[in-house]
Specification:
The protein is built from three helices and no strands. By secondary structure, it is mostly helical.
Length: 112
């Protein structure tokens, strides 16, 4: 049986990975790897990921105010709220700074 934390981890990885994979395939990143194309794929994917973060945040807030306030939470609501929290924390402290660093490196490489 899959534990709750495993489901949260899998959902978070999929929510981050699928937009990047889709944009990488659209840009044909895997045919000829270039750092510029990788950066471009991440820049396009972050738009989708910001929308996902906002939707998850609103959903988690709604679940917290409606179900948890009256003590009606269950495993599904716990997974949704925990996934939203994990997704937003990873985005804020790891993913967005990583993309900023990639863009900075790409900018430095194109200046030479």
């Amino acid at each position: 049986m899959i534990k709750e934390i495993d489901m949260i981890t899998i959902l978070t990885i999929l929510l981050f990975g699928l937009p990047v994979l889709i944009h990488s395939l659209k840009l044909r990143l895997f045919n000829e790897f270039q750092f510029y194309t990788l950066t471009k794929a991440f820049n396009k994917a972050i738009i989708v990921q910001i929308v996902v973060a906002i939707v998850l945040g609103i959903l988690a807030y709604a679940i917290d105010k409606t179900l948890y306030a009256i003590g009606q939470g269950n495993m599904l609501t716990s997974i949704i709220v925990s996934t939203a929290m994990t997704y937003n924390i990873i985005a804020a402290f790891f993913y967005i700074p990583g993309i900023i660093l990639m863009n900075l490196i790409n900018w430095i490489l194109t200046k030479k």
